[in-house]
Amino acid sequence: MTDTSLIARLRDSDLWWSFSRSPLTVAAALVTLLFVVGALFAPWLAPHDPFDPRTLKLLDAFTPPAWTADGRPTYVLGTDNQGRDVLSAIMYGGRISLLVSLAAIALSVTFGVGLGLAAGFHGGWVDTLIMRIADIQLTVPAILIALTLDGVARVALPSTVHDQFAVWVLVLSIGFANWPQFARVTRATTLAERSKDYVSAARIIGISGPKIALKHVLPNALGPVLVIATIGLALAIIAEASLSFLGVGMPPTQPSLGTLIRIGNAFLFSGEWWIVIFPALALMVLSLAVNLLGDWLRDALNPKLR
Fold first, then answer.
1. Within a domain: residue 39?
2. Which domain holds residue 132?
3. DSSP 53
4. CB 255 within 8 Å of CB 244
5. Domain of 173: which CATH number?
6. Which of 249, 121, 137, 244 is nearest to 186 (CA)?
7. pTM (predicted TM-score)
8. For the purposes of burial, counting CB atoms within 10 Å of the CB of 136, is it exposed (0-12), middle (13-18) or buried (19 or more)?
9. Where does the ABC transmembrane type-1 domain start and stop, copy by copy (predicted)?
């Protein structure tokens, strides 16, 4: 199949029709794409390297945005207390936030879908055990689980080593906290699919249970999982920012958006408002755009709304 035919099929699909006729969704997609491109190509697109000590100028600290009376054209959104360009810091910080969030959601999906598929397909004590564990975890706030796991990592690892592995500690913390919702949705879909004729036919011709679950049942469960993963990505971005804001996330030497907000919050009432306002706006706009995409995908994949 050629690329041209793939593009033609995409343009003729219901998803593209729904997407192209929703200006809000198109705007959200463009905003998300802008953030992703800015994060991926930050070393080439950012005006400055905010994390290279050789390029920092302490004399430029607390420079206001360029459009103010004391602003400078070289610092469009101003600088922070260390002379770092706020715009460049947001681009580099967004890179870390997106990396942590995407990796955490990938971990949640892999872990949750696997357990949900096993629970729904096998049933019995396997289903009871997995779902009771998920129910217990759902009673505990996800951020509390993430704080607990991060605290355990801080006790188990030396401070210098913890800073080096801070990204992966955050990924494990957020990813482990969010797997139950993926397990529950996958289990529900699996319970509906395993009683259908094509599963019975696969059993009759001798296909093994794990192969039936992975090759036949799992593809039918990916639609709802994709919707939850998109919405969960926005929640993961906020969770990472919350942990970093509380001081248990990324270190100041490798700040994410949450770390930038925590640093800027100390100077909000001293007049340097731009240090916290612009990272907070970036976090809000990114989370809102991803959330809008998730809402559109949920409606687009719902056959009752077609």
1. no
2. 86-305
3. G
4. yes
5. 1.10.3720.10
6. 121
7. 0.86
8. exposed
9. 94-294
